[in-house]
User: What shape does this take?
Amino acid sequence: MNSSDRVKDGRSAERLAAPDAHDRAPTSREGARPGSFTSIWRTLIDALRKEAGPGQAMLWLPVSMALGAATWFVLPERPAILPVAVALGCCMIVLAVSDREWLRKSGLLVAGFVLAMLAADFETRQLNTTLLDGEVTTNIVGTVVARDVDHAGRLRYTIKVDRSFDPQLRRPPETVRLVARANHEPVEIGGGVSGLVRLRPPSGPALPGSFDFTYNSFFNGIGANGFFLGKPDTTYVPDASGRGWFEEGGLTLQRLRQKISERVKEVLPGEAGGFAAALTVADRRSMSPDTVDALRQSGLAHVLAISGLHMALVAGTFFLLVRACFSVFPTIVQAVPTKKYAAVGALAIATLYLSISGASVSTQRAWIMLVIMLIAVLADRQALTMRNVAIAAMIIIVITPSAVLGPGFQMSFAATAALIATYALWNKPRPGTGRAEAGWLGTPARVLFVFFLGLAVTSLVAGLATAPFAIHHFHRIAAYGLLANLAAMPIVTFIVMPAGMFAVLLMPLGLEKWPLIVMGGGLDAVIAIARYVRDIGGAVVVGQISPWITLVAVAGLLIFVLSRTRLRIVGLALLLLAGAAMTIPRTWPDILIAEDGRLVALVNKGGLATNRKRPPRFIFEQWQTGLKRTRHDTPLDIAGGINDLGSALEASAARTDHMQCAAKTFCVGVSGSGTKLALVEDLSYLGAACDEADIVVTAASIAMERCYSGALLITGRMLRQSGALAIWTKTNGNQPKIRSAVASVDRAWTRHRAYNWRNDSFYKITPSWRQ
Assistant: This one.
């Protein structure tokens, strides 16, 4: 008997000697009972070992890079770059000399983290956009680099500023966006323009923790917004000899986009034309706020963002069209690789679409993924994989790391990764399954069933994947998004986008009219669906949530999507935990103050009591959604015009649901906790406000730092550096809790808040609530 026979006999003897399976308690390997802590721990360890297998580190590398970029941008001060560079060097050494797999993978993830920090520092240094420090009226002279028209017909110019005068700005923004309200002949792109303008800095966060539009403007290169005071003057002729080929190419591309947009709106006037211009060249200003709001509340706003859906439909339609044309000639199909020729043509069409659409982050992501997929087709490899998503994410993070904090980047990659993971599970081969049996499932009914089932799954998965980011940034989710997408997406897929592609391709021949008419009919139907869904329920306002809840939800989503073992259960548990945390009652602030100090609100049950009958819509709507307060309680006029601030405060104690105001003098109100608030416009009442109120607010930029009575003083000078404020007066201590929207003035996109134009220097204020 040889050794192998003895082993077999030994195993047989062990099996025969073992007790019957029904006579013993079920145990896991090494004696651990299923469901015990030891068993769960060992299962978790096994799952982690499998997750550390080949290829998984590649998927987590862009996550590490995104964390690195986000960390660099959210820190209150710019990190020292030398330690970051040293850390990257150490990681490179580990990757080069270590022979331990776990150490090499850990070094790779850390290297991605610090590399993204270096990329973020480089991008910020390279841009160095000058942001205007305060509102000013001045004369500018510059060159128009872009032009668009809003739904009311008002022209908006993006202008590269050559100089300013009367007064001359010491820190002039390089590029500004100005609305021209007066009727005038439109200024051509590349032409010169001058005139008297009112400029203001980009808006900061409307609420602490909400989206910072100043950050967005900084990385888009826009230093100020405003409007012309009168008609723009077109007598100025800019010097074109100093333009490089890159700048001239950019102007040519802008002219092309403008011509396409104008032609589309000429054929399709009204809402459909604005919608079509948004889908072709990303010109969204022509759409009315009502239509945009309907698309957002119905869950169809993603149609506006040119992303993977649009890129795939355009390139995919062209790809299939080319293959269909080749199929008419069987000899050619047998002689040449027509599939590869179609892939090259689809790549050219996708690149054209990227150029004329404005190349937003979601469009860049879609284009990069499409390029990878088409290259895979050319190389006869599998095209759509999670690895391609990872490569696209890494490329964008290295090139534009600032995009990591934007909703476009986050929602685009979340939806794409979730869909690929879902369809990978859907298409996973299962033992004992085969093709569908004949019958009704083999008829066109099956095609329709599978199509709408796939559409429903796509909408549901994409909606769930993007929900944490939608709640974090916009504080609401679409209640009937699935219904809206099931009704609208077939129209977008089979009518709108193919017709739009043909319209753009036929535009040089002057044959775009009928494709545009077909496209417009489809868009009218989409708008009707969006408005119907909005009217039956629309969006559910969730309100502002803690950043920690968002982080837990994102961690759960990443684990659930990127894992390939039972570790997905951990991701699902984190998602459920985040969802449960959102239902916990939150403590809302009692007082809100806008960053300019001109708008103040008392937060009461169900509403916001403000000092203005018509508050700025841009800020006030963010307050309403952020705090789940739909009702607006307008201010009351002080009876009889009595300007006695103390008496007004006494009267306000009985009306905590309204503020009381004396025109152009002061406004007073009392919060639900009894805190007395005074907003002073006429500074002669500042002393009385300090004596009578607990919190005093003035928009005036005065040097006074505190009330000697002990009341909390908030001035325009302080708000300029702190941004908007949220105040909780119901605290255990005597002092209210205050959160500011701007953490510091030490970052490149907040430094303008500390500039003093009088002596051309920077200063820093430390208010009493920050001490």
User: Anything to note?
Assistant: Residues 136-238 form a domain with the OB fold (Dihydrolipoamide Acetyltransferase, E2P) fold (CATH 2.40.50.140). The first strand starts at residue 136 and ends at 149. The longest helix spans residues 444-474. Confidence is low (pLDDT under 50) at residues 6-31, 434-441.
